[in-house]
Amino acid sequence: MALLFGTASTASAADMVLVVNDGPDSGFNDPTPVAPEGGNNGATLGQQRRIAFQYAADILGSRIDSRVPIRIVADFDETLSCDRESATLGAAGPITYVANFTTTSRARSNVFYPLALANALRGSRVPDTANDIRATFNPTLDEGTNCLESASWYYGIDGVTPSDRPSFVSTVEHELTHGVGFISLVALTDDANSRAGQFPQTSDGGARLPDIYSTFIQDLSFPNDPLWTDLTDEQRARSLTNGENVVWSDINTGSRAASILTAGLKEGRVKLYAPSPVSPGSSISHWDESLSPDQIMEPFATGNDDVASGIGLTTCVLEDIGWTLANGARCPDEADQAIANPQEPEEEPTEPVTEPVVSTGGSSSSNSSSGSGGGCTLTGEGRFDPLWALLLAVGAFGVCRRRRLV
After folding, report:
1. Nearest-angstrom CA–CA distance, 103 and 59
2. What is the pTM of this model?
3. Overall domain count for the chain
């Protein structure tokens, strides 16, 4: 069963709805009593998790425009890795991608869009879909084990995260940003469905089409600085590990980034994370680690990525891929505050999760799937409508990791 939680959002903003996928007495439903911290007054661990999640979701939702509520299926998954030195904090991605879903000029033809963005561009929900984003988080941090040397989650919503604890709000913000489109579907490794460097294939086994995020990737090491859409599959496979040469192509984003970055640009463009060897769940779908100051969409949480004063360059990418920014949000986003007067959402009646949920496949370092966001698992599920004849059901997840804090 799933529980729905949501708050009324500001006009022109996106309504972010949490669909709890945990069982009784676990995850977002954990009844363990806890003391208030950092403005989060939840009386139980589950309540504090829901309050912090909704707060983070509303930070993002208040900056993007959508008439269609964005539904996030979320839970806590004990299979996510955690040891003394490092941890996978969470993983998330779009549940479904669609192409050719609208006749308006707001979307490119023959390009895959994450469902939440497709709904926003279309102005109504794509037929036969229910949920937009799948997200999972690591509960081991709260279990008093030798996970990050017992550095438990910080569920505060005051923007004052202790230096020795990972911020749940920032982690949720990072993961939901993957869910609304900050993620590539290009295969990172060979598997049964794709070769490294290939774009995803439609669920009926037809054409391979680029996803909207990947259309903005550029490699400065090739002659004439081509976009990824201009490369062959083999060239894209080589580009996956081309380090600082792999950049976000939009020059306007680069010029605006120059106003806040002291490092992380190459030839006026922002670097993407393209290490050698490939890092499943991290490569391509994040900013490079060299960016300074740190940005929320870097692959590793650093403790310097709080979102209480805006989400930085995230808005630039979201605007580039098609989102309309709301409530005066700009690229880059350096707001004076996150969400004013956050309140605990009211619980609504239970209902089942009506759309198939794609598993993360366990540890974030798993090589069981090859897409850029931690894997691309293609299925034949999904009904077809003449307006949106191409549907892709995927398991592409962006991953947020944390190294041990010192």
Report:
1. 31
2. 0.84
3. 1
